UniProtKB/TrEMBL annotation:
Location relative to the cell: Cytoplasm
Reaction(s) catalysed (UniProt annotation): N(2)-formyl-N(1)-(5-phospho-beta-D-ribosyl)glycinamide + L-glutamine + ATP + H2O = 2-formamido-N(1)-(5-O-phospho-beta-D-ribosyl)acetamidine + L-glutamate + ADP + phosphate + H(+); L-glutamine + H2O = L-glutamate + NH4(+)
InterPro entries: Class_I_gatase-like, PRibForGlyAmidine_synth_PurQ
Name of the protein in question: Phosphoribosylformylglycinamidine synthase subunit PurQ
Organism per entry: Rothia terrae
Length: 265
């Protein structure tokens, strides 16, 4: 009889054991959650590794955060986007622990990317909601973003006002919130990433990503983890010349949290 593989033992497949020269950074453990239907956990784990940290797979129905120092809630279609994108994942056992740790005095850094951002709004760690793109189509493009807040746990390695190019791919990417919430986000500088040039989905105030009040929880719709290796990411030169593809603009999101955690030690 075939050996049974309990769900909690399902491994995150892939070799993330990149050599790193900085032992302080590699001592930082970043959890990457996998729900049924998650797509981008491997790329998120690889981004953590390329930034110099240690990626720790976290399974959705576990309640053990395994002493991680930060958590990435990656993109995809958790639970098939049934009910609403992110709504079921928000109730997963692992998220109960993430919410607790994010709200604790220790302020665990949490990053939600795309479906992860949808999960974070559904948990109310972040305000507002994600609804269907205004054009009602799935969209996939290289997107210019401006870093409007470089004081969060996930953006401190960027310059304020810096523009980066990362991929965007979703159907429920339109960020909406009531007028009071939008006003508060703007007044408190909590719009972290803003769409530049094109607003690809009708998001209010061109909002691509936001933070909670303490700046430890950040969610964004575009995908920094898909732009972490020169030669493989989007064309940040804007020339359309494949030979000029830079594509590592997203790496700063992951180095930010590692450097911040190391300097806080
Ligand atoms: N790339 C993704 O994470 C997709 C997110 C989400 N399920 C959507 O399509 O809106």
């Amino acid at each position: 009889m075939a050996e049974s593989l309990a769900p909690t033992e399902v491994p995150l497949v892939g070799d993330f054991s990149q050599p790193t020269t900085d032992s302080a950074l590699s001592g930082v453990r970043v959890g990457v959650i996998t729900f049924p239907g998650t797509l981008d956990d491997r790329d998120a784990a690889r981004a953590v590794t390329l930034a110099g940290g240690t990626a720790v797979p976290l399974w959705h129905d576990s309640t053990d955060l395994q002493d991680v120092d930060a958590v990435v809630v990656p993109g995809g279609f958790s639970y098939g986007d049934y009910l609403r994108a992110g709504a079921i994942a928000a109730k997963a056992p692992i998220m109960e622990k993430v919410i607790e740790a994010a709200n604790s005095d220790a302020a665990l850094p949490v990053l939600g990317i795309c479906n992860g951002f949808q999960v974070l709004t559904e948990t109310h760690l972040l305000p507002g909601s994600m609804i269907k793109n205004d054009h009602r189509k799935f969209i996939c493009r290289d997107q210019v973003l401006r870093i409007d807040n470089n004081e969060t746990a996930w953006t401190s390695d960027f310059e304020k006002g810096q523009e980066i190019v990362v991929p965007l791919k979703n159907q429920d990417g339109q960020y909406v919130a009531d007028a009071e919430t939008l006003e508060e986000l703007e007044a408190e500088g909590r719009v972290v990433f803003r769409y530049v040039g094109v607003n690809p989905n009708g998001s209010r105030n061109d909002i691509a990503g936001i933070a909670n009040k303490r700046g430890n929880v950040v969610g964004l719709m575009p995908h920094p983890e898909h732009a972490v290796e020169p030669g493989f990411g989007p064309d940040s030169s804007g020339s359309g010349d494949v030979a000029l593809r830079g594509g590592a603009d997203g790496l700063g999101v992951f180095t930010s949290v590692l450097n911040k955690l190391v300097s806080a030690r």
